[in-house]
Amino acid sequence: MSGTDSGTLIHRFLHWERTQPDAVYLPEPTPDGRVVNHTWKEVGDEARRMAAWLRSLQLPPRSAISIVGKNGAHWITADLAIWLAGHVSVPIYPTISADTAKYVFEHCDVRVVFVGKLDGKTDGWSEISKVLPPHARLVGLPMSPPVLRALPWSDIVADVAPLQDVYLPSPNDLATIIYTSGSTGQPKGVMHSFGTIFAYATQSGIFCGFTPEDRVLSYLPLAHTAERSFVEANSLRHGFRVFFNDSLATFAQDLQRARPTVFISMPRLWTKFYQSVCAKLPEDQQALLHTSAPRPVRSSRKF
């Protein structure tokens, strides 16, 4: 573990921005096969610039701001910008129905929507875009599709100076509202404070022994509490590097690039890993393998 046990994830982010500014925080694959390495300093600079723009909108304190899109470096950077400006982030699955999206937008009165990477195949953006709040400002993250009415992220950060008097939350302040997917009725919004998220990340670090040298691959939806907590919260708490999966087709390549020291998954993927290994072994050796309950696993081998 690193640092003290006091503060919030914002305090920890400012710590890493100050103490390891040139360390790579968010390496991200691009559609053309390149990898862009975003350092803590660069992430902080863009987050501060976007936070300054959000402040300029003069929204009510603790306004709900949504992020819709696939995992990526600017998903996390947008989340940080929302917090640094003193607002509440509301992530939304890009695969949800228009009715579900409309309910979430209205339920928490979303004022700004960040639109991130979308693959156009499995996401529901074409329908979600029809129910966007008419009063909401739209911002297109890098690698987002063309979005009507959206201001490009790159234009905003190029024109706005970084925010210096960033919002420093208390543990009791609301950080995010994470909605369920709506598969069992209307989505339920779970309110998470900065204190509860920080407590989880602190205890997770004790259990897993995280250090800034760790590496993790982000591929499950950041709109889900599991990925948001295990990947984003822990990376901010403990200062380690987050890699991203660009698509299902590039999963093996992205996994090899990341060489994760810790990995979280759902039972279905563990089963696929198991079956893949079994398929490469003679039948008489397959009985030597067995599976166990899925949990975070620290990896000792290089992918």
From TrEMBL:
A single GO molecular function term of this UniProt record: long-chain fatty acid-CoA ligase activity
Transmembrane intervals: none
UniProt keywords, alphabetically: ATP-binding, Nucleotide-binding
The UniProt record lists the keyword Nucleotide-binding: yes
Listed GO CC annotations: membrane
Family annotation (Gene3D superfamilies): N-terminal domain of ligase-like
Protein name: AMP-dependent synthetase/ligase domain-containing protein
Lineage: Bacteria, Pseudomonadati, Pseudomonadota, Betaproteobacteria, Burkholderiales
